[in-house]
From TrEMBL:
Transmembrane segments: none annotated. Residues 21-57 form the F-box domain. This is Putative F-box/LRR-repeat protein At5g02700. InterPro entries: F-box-like_dom_sf (IPR036047), F-box_AtFBL13-like (IPR053781), F-box_dom (IPR001810), FBL13/AtMIF1-like (IPR050232), LRR_dom_sf (IPR032675), LRR_FXL15/At3g58940/PEG3-like (IPR055411). It comes from Anthurium amnicola.
Length: 378
């Protein structure tokens, strides 16, 4: 009886001992990092409070996503996290940083740029595949502070443009100043946001990315024209998203595209004038999603501009038009004749609200697209 009591007591003591043991922290770092990789960045950082061993463990996770904090994190925090990560591979690095006090003093601004250059060097050494850098001015997000930097050199180091590991690159970082030699042999997706892009520079970038499949330009070249010459590239998808124009009366806000290899094109945002589609010989799918085309002084030319754009896209098989496009077509639909245009559109999607001022435009498209096989009105 007494022996049985002692055995039961020993078993209870062992259970208590197991409960007091931090079995999670006894797991190897590789297992813990695998667990942390499934957590949101905020939760992974919060896990640092579990124990001393966990304090900096999150800095070695394969995905460092500081964008999940918005722009609340300071550049110092991001910099420290990168320095603590050692040489562990980084699959993805994403950072969104508001300039804050850096925008007021030029030497601080340049200090920040040098810090960003360090980030690029660190993540490239760690084999980064996805790089997302979003830097913007807290006072006016449409005028980026790095464009006024006193540094004569490029804001981003030249090594970025010869990186062999990068697969996806997203940047909102002012003016692009890449070196003459560009070789990003693994890059498949490139997004440039609120950047001033010289057409020759963009052409060199595209030529230096032999397997690039997707190019997105968001709110670029807001003070003038935008030219995309991708004749030396193998692009498959091109997306152009524009902001409001007209603040510079003497400027020409044309959009020129020459991309013989693309199969998908999306044009959205505010209308540029005019559009020049020089070579889109492989294009199959096009989406035109423009905004507020009836609200500006230039609305007199909106119909002609849209008509000419659709003429250049007449060979596509799949077309998507937004409500504003349909409304602009409605303005002159009764007097319009597109009999001379040979549209090859077989699948048409009209995103409309079924309001009376859209009806003439809907009827015009249905009369003109004689080869139509599929129609979706949403």
């Amino acid at each position: 009886m007494e022996g049985g009591t002692m055995a039961a007591g020993d078993a209870q003591n062992q259970r208590c001992l197991l409960l007091d043991t931090d079995r999670l922290s006894e797991l190897p770092d590789s297992v813990l990092l695998h667990i942390l990789s499934f957590l949101h960045m905020r939760d992974a950082i919060s896990a640092a409070g579990i124990s001393r061993r966990w304090r900096h463990l999150w800095t070695a996770t394969p995905c460092l996503d500081f964008c999940s904090y918005g722009a609340d994190l300071s550049p110092d925090f991001i910099h420290t996290a990168l320095m603590l990560g050692g040489r562990v591979k980084v699959r993805a690095f994403r950072a969104a940083v508001c300039t804050g006090p850096y925008q007021d003093v030029s030497d601080n601004r340049d200090r920040f740029i040098m810090r960003v250059r360090t980030w690029v060097h660190v993540v490239l050494r760690r084999g980064v595949e996805e790089f997302h850098l979003d830097c913007y001015d807290s006072d006016n997000a449409y005028h980026f502070f790095l464009q006024e930097s006193l540094l004569q050199e490029s804001p981003l180091p030249d090594i970025l443009y010869t990186c062999k590991s990068l697969v996806s690159l997203w940047m909102r970082f002012g003016i692009m100043k890449p070196p003459s030699r560009i070789s990003m042999t693994s890059l498949k997706s490139l997004t440039l946001c609120r950047s001033e892009i010289d057409p020759v520079v963009l052409g060199n970038v595209l030529a230096g990315c032999p397997i690039l499949e997707s190019l997105t330009l968001e709110e670029c070249n807001t003070s003038g024209g935008l030219k995309v010459n991708a004749e030396r590239a193998n692009l498959k998808t091109l997306k152009i998203s524009d902001v409001i124009y007209g603040q510079y009366p003497d400027s020409v806000y044309e959009l020129l595209i020459s991309a013989p290899s693309i199969t998908t094109l999306a044009i959205q945002g505010y209308m540029r004038m005019p559009y020049h589609m020089n070579d889109l010989s492989s294009l199959v799918t096009a989406s035109v999603d423009l905004r507020y085309m009836l609200h500006w002084e230039v609305e007199r030319g909106n119909y002609e501009c849209l008509r000419d754009l659709l003429r250049d896209l007449s060979h596509v098989r799949v077309l998507r038009l937004c409500s504003w496009c349909v409304q602009v077509l409605s303005v002159k639909a009764p007097e319009s004749s597109w009999s001379s245009l040979d549209f090859n559109v077989m699948s048409l999607e009209l995103v409309v609200g079924f309001i009376p001022r859209e009806f003439p435009g809907i009827f015009l498209t249905l009369r003109s697209f004689t080869k139509l096989e599929y129609l979706k009105i949403d």
